[in-house]
Amino acid sequence: MFKIPSFYEMPMTFEDAKRALIGLDGKQDLLGAMEAMDARWNEYCKSSFTETPQYEDDDDFYSTWEYEVNAYNVVYESMAPLFAQKG
């Protein structure tokens, strides 16, 4: 899940979240789209150690991907119980 600053948090339904993610980087399935969003974050994190980072800071990243990171969290929260281990 993304730790979204409260300024960028927005409520959305699962259906809205799916629409925001599907098609990201050409991914037509929800898992692929979530992996693509996760890859964007990982690339941003790596770029912060290079000479020319793609985003100035976390705020810049979140302002650029506001809808997608919120959608990611909605889908993640909705699907997490499917993967929870029973003790």
Describe the fold and architecture:
This protein has 87 residues and is an all-alpha fold. It has a domain at 13-24 and 44-76. Helix content is 59%, strand content 0%. Helix 1 (14-21) crosses helix 4 (66-83).
Number of continuous helical runs? 4
Mass-distribution shape: globular
Radius of gyration: 14 Å
Helix vs. strand class = mainly alpha
| Order of helical and strand elements | HHHH
| Helix content bin | 55-70%
- The poorly predicted ranges are none
The major beta sheet can be summarized as: none
Q: On the 0-100 scale, what is the average pLDDT? A: 90
Beta-strand content bin: under 5%
Total strands: the figure is 0
End-to-end separation: 23 Å
How would you summarize what this structure contains?
By secondary structure, the chain is mostly helical. The chain has helices at 14-21, 30-47, 58-64, 66-83.
List descriptors:
mainly alpha, 0% strand, single chain, 87 residues
Strand-helix topology:
Elements: H1 14-21, H2 30-47, H3 58-64, H4 66-83
